Amino acid sequence: MSQVSQLPSLVQRLSARQRALLTVLWRILPEARLVGGVVRDLLAGRQVADIDMAIPLAPEQVMARLRAAGVVAVPTGLAHGTITAVVDGLPCEITTLRRDLQTDGRHAVVAWTDDWQLDAARRDFTINALFLDQAGTLYDWFGGQADLRAGRVRFVGDAQSRIEEDALRILRFFRFQARYGTGEPAPDTVAVISRGAALLAGLSVERVWSELKQILALPQVVPAVRLMAQTGVMTVIMPEGVTLPRLEALEACQPPPDPLLRLAALTQAPAALATRLKLSKAETGRLRCIARTGAPDGPLAWLEDDQHAENVLRSLLVDASHDCLLAALWLCQAQNPPQSARAQACIHLRQRLSGLDVPVFPLAGRDALAMGMAPGPAMGRLIAQVRQWWQQGGCTASAEACRAELARILHTEP
């Protein structure tokens, strides 16, 4: 099925760089069509982040044509038929039409084809199975445009078959439902997802975290996570346990859509979860910092007194970033009644945080040496003791006061 569309008006919604990219690529590869997200978002009137194209040529032919025309062509996914063309620094993934030979719920063995409808039939959702050529013809074999208008996220063909081909489509469903769906999803689709939730255990944790992170970055995350819990999906992907009420309380405070802050609110075991999902070192550090600092018994638990609270915050800045403390203050606020002194202190301190500089401990080894101390572990231990005293005092003690404290310790130690 095809429908004529006004290509010029659609293309005008792209940025100037994206339009220039298409001009170059369509001159070299006139058979190529825009596919998936770019078509979907053009039709929905949304900003287009990435340009993807499909083509009925083998990837080697695509690469040869691009390079002959002087365009950078990178074989980013030859096994899956994908070449990345780069024009003036802007990338475009160009993928050869495919059909599935074999699927196992995680990986697919594919073969090239020149059948556009066959390629569309192997895609996940009708709103992603759309093609648009340079003449302005929209190719829509499965009713994707009507589903987009209706706010309906629907699997291409049989939902169970699509999920059995690749279980990650379960998580993708929740992401697209949250972004494009209106109202409740179809009960039969929810039932199929519930029956297939266990298949998620067979996916690599890297794929699961990549998709979960995108879900947790959505503007309205609670309905998606609530439905994921109801269908048993959360039990499979976060077996450490989840605390949905804490996430709901966090979102009621209207924080920015921060995936790691939301994960800290949702998980009952941040360290174990970070290890199992193989979060990056930076992600693991930030998640643990947010969860530890914003915990009910954490260092922000004594925020009722305003001056003391600012001292605590200044002390925490020595070992944690502004970013981590900002997120931890949101989490702390969410775990207290809205009008409580602690919740109000969290709000006040978020406003003050950006104006606070990271305190610098004013004592160094050379100061201890100047006082006659011998270098070694003992000196390091005493300096660390002074540093702890300095932090407990809100990091306000001067270099002179720190030297005096070091001298006091030296004279009182046996």
| CATH architecture identity of the largest domain | 2-Layer Sandwich
By oligomeric state, this entry counts as: single chain
**Overall pLDDT score:** 90
Radius of gyration: 28 Å
Q: How many strand segments?
A: 10
The N- to C-terminal Cα distance equals: 90 Å
In CATH's first tier, which class of the largest domain applies?
A: Alpha Beta
Task: Categorize the overall geometry.
Answer: elongated
Main β-sheet description: 8 strands, mixed
* Count of separate DSSP helical elements: 22
Measured by DSSP, the beta-strand proportion falls in: 5-15%
Contiguous uncertain segments of 5+ residues: 1-7
Measured as a percent range, the helix fraction is 40-55%
Strand order of the largest sheet: 1-10-9-2-3-6-5-4
Q: Looking at CATH, which topology of the largest domain would you report?
A: Beta Polymerase, domain 2
In terms of structural class, how would the helical and strand content be classed?
alpha+beta
CATH superfamily of the largest domain: Beta Polymerase, domain 2
Write the layout of secondary structure elements.
Layout: E1 2-4, H1 7-11, H2 16-28, E2 33-35, H3 37-44, E3 51-55, H4 59-68, E4 72-77, E5 82-87, E6 90-96, E7 98-103, E8 108-112, H5 116-121, E9 131-132, E10 137-139, H6 144-150, H7 159-165, H8 168-180, H9 187-196, H10 205-216, H11 222-230, H12 233-237, H13 244-252, H14 259-266, H15 270-276, H16 281-293, H17 306-316, H18 322-334, H19 341-353, H20 365-370, H21 377-392, H22 399-412
Parallel strand pairs: 3-6
Antiparallel strand pairs: 1-10, 2-3, 2-9, 4-5, 5-6, 7-8, 9-10
Helix pairs in contact: 7-9, 8-10, 8-11, 10-14, 13-14, 13-18, 14-16, 15-16, 16-18, 18-19, 21-22
